[in-house]
Amino acid sequence: MSAASPSSPARSDDDAIAPSAQQVSAFAPASVGNIGVGFDVLGHSIQGPRDVATVRRIAEPVVRIRAIRGDVPGADSLPLQAERNTAGQALISLREKLGLAHGFELELDKGIALGSGLGGSAASCVAALVAANALLAQPLSREALYEFALDGESVSSGSRHGDNVAPMLLGGVVMATSTRMIALSVPDWLYAVVVHPDQVLETRRARAVLSDPYPLSQVVKQSAHLALFLTGLQRGDAQLLREGLVDLLVEPRRAPLIPGFAEVKAAALEHGALGASISGAGPSCFAWFETKTQAQIAAAAMRIAFAAAGFDSRAYVTPVAGPRAEVIGSV
Hints:
A hairpin with a 4-residue loop joins strand 5 and strand 6 (181-183). Helix content is 34%, strand content 24%. The protein has helices spanning 86-98, 120-134, 142-157, 165-170, 203-208, 216-235, 238-244, 251-254, 261-270, 292-308; strands at residues 23-33, 42-58, 63-70, 103-110, 173-176, 181-183, 191-197, 275-278, 285-289, 313-319, 326-330. By secondary structure, the chain is of the alpha+beta class. The chain is globular and about 55 Å long.
């Protein structure tokens, strides 16, 4: 499954709505970026918090953000200038690429905490793109939206990586490169626990600790883990997933930025996790399990571990094959 050619964006009826609609709302789910072993190239969506975007078609050929709301701390501090906002920039890129004569007015309802490691900035731009796409006379395919989502995400992270936007667009586990997003096989028995503590860790700070080079021997070992992990997904083999879901590169450098992480990971493994690591840039943590019951029991233990470190937290138990962004209403 590849991104559409820039010269001829693929069209799709998947997101088509009534042609008379002038306003559409869409949601995008939270996500687990990296999945530990796949830095910047793997991610999966989750059932849990979500962002909602409401997009109106306007005659003026501009992108305008009318309001940003939400109960999450810091939502009112997000920029209303479209070019400085992930959702706004994604719509600007969409307009310019398609040469649209009309513009878009946008409202965002934030449900994903800022600096949580759950893809909040990505969710805003994906929700906005899915809503705006449904207003087009010929909606684009999800693959064709990918480049615009990368444009939006780069506003927040400073780089074009798709490990959050790709699973939000397609659902489930996705491999994301600079030009492609590929949906991967996911066994239906796989469940995840994602725990978000009352901490904030800015993505740029979390990326800064990765600037020093890595020894080649570590890179080779990490490549072996990634190969085992991908093969385990394809075969539905829990043991291969257990051997593969080990991050030797990013986790050791970011773990000190997350008080309580070591204890939370230990709690997950003690309760049967196939593996556990940091979600995205952190501070949220995730673990994969062979059953929903295991995940539910481990979720409580992981929260207790964060509490012992002095932080309240919320836990989400979700199929690893999580939802994709969808339209939820139109007028």
